[in-house]
UniProtKB/TrEMBL annotation:
Positions with a binding annotation for S-adenosyl-L-methionine: G79, F84, A129, E130, R148
Enzyme Commission code: 2.1.1.-
Main location: cytoplasm
Any one GO MF annotation of this record: rRNA (guanine-N7-)-methyltransferase activity
Taxonomic lineage from the root: Bacteria, Bacillati, Bacillota, Clostridia, Eubacteriales
Top-level EC class as recorded in UniProt: transferase
Keyword line: Cytoplasm, Methyltransferase, rRNA processing, S-adenosyl-L-methionine, Transferase
Domain of life: Bacteria
Protein's UniProt name: Ribosomal RNA small subunit methyltransferase G
Record's GO cellular component terms: cytosol
Function, as annotated: Specifically methylates the N7 position of a guanine in 16S rRNA.
Organism listed in the record: Ruminococcus flavefaciens 007c
PANTHER family noted in UniProt: S-ADENOSYL-L-METHIONINE-DEPENDENT METHYLTRANSFERASES SUPERFAMILY PROTEIN
Length: 234
């Protein structure tokens, strides 16, 4: 399903990453399961082999290069969908303690089966981020929260920052177009500060990784409920 090992190695190399035979084997299983499952349950519009390699796998793993992730960090992937960015990241960095969160149960079902096949340990949560982060067992418990392609920066901050402990980070994976500064007010209200926005090329496309450092506790009234969040972002 993926391009051959040599081509994948060369793409990994040009992104500054290393591909081992073992990782390649796991990514092949991931790609095959994803594309087959996608025929009955909608998970992704990206199914062409080179695109799966670049836009899903390398785009996810590249986070390990752009962000300093200490060993054994606890990471929650908010709105993970088919497991991006955190499942490829966990294959690259098996020490990471992973929690996968999505509001759609059919995606959580897929992820449970996928993680079985890949022999990955993870915690699975079916729920809306704005409800789950109010629960004491998940609130401010993570070193990192991350999200790709879930919402604009202001809304996403309200979904992701409450999960992060003070001293940890919220990582948003973004394309080139969104005005990140529109999320700055939300970031401050929720206890964060915009630490960096790193721009990089993913083959012929521009990408950005936004790193929000958590500097104080999120006030207990946040996140608001989903209808309030949608009505007006912070
Ligand atoms: N992160 C994946 C990726 O980059 O391919 C999936 C992106 S998909 C466009 C957005 C995902 O976020 C969907 O799986 C959706 O169910 C989930 N989602 C949206 N709002 C959410 C919320 N408030 N809480 C949890 N999951 C949410």
């Amino acid at each position: 399903m993926l391009p051959d090992f040599e081509l994948c190695c060369s793409d990994f190399h040009s992104a500054g990453l290393i591909l081992t035979r073992e990782l390649y084997g796991k990514l092949e299983k991931y790609a095959e399961f994803l594309v087959n499952y996608n025929e009955k349950v909608n998970l992704t519009a990206i199914t062409e082999p080179v695109e799966v390699l670049r836009k899903h796998f390398i785009d996810s793993i590249i986070m390990s290069q752009q962000v300093d992730i200490p060993e054994n960090s606890a990471i929650i992937d908010v709105g993970t969908g088919a497991g991006f960015p955190s499942v490829p990241l966990k294959l690259y960095r098996p020490d990471i303690r992973l929690t996968l969160l999505d509001s759609l149960n059919k995606r959580i079902d897929f992820l449970r089966q996928l993680c079985d096949i890949l022999e990955i340990e993870a915690e699975f949560i079916h729920g809306r981020a704005e409800d789950v982060s109010k629960m004491p067992e998940y609130r401010e418990k993570y070193d990192f929260s991350c999200a790709r392609a879930v919402a604009n920066m202001a809304l996403l901050s309200e979904l992701c920052i409450p999960f992060v402990r003070v001293g940890g980070s919220f990582i948003a994976m973004k394309g080139p177009n969104e005005d990140i500064s529109l999320g700055e007010n939300a970031v401050h209200i929720l206890g964060g500060t915009l630490a960096s926005v790193v721009e990089y090329d993913l083959f012929d496309e521009k990408r950005r990784i936004v790193n929000v450092k958590k500097i104080s506790q999120t006030p207990s009234k946040y996140p608001r409920n989903s209808s309030q969040i949608k009505k007006k972002t912070l």
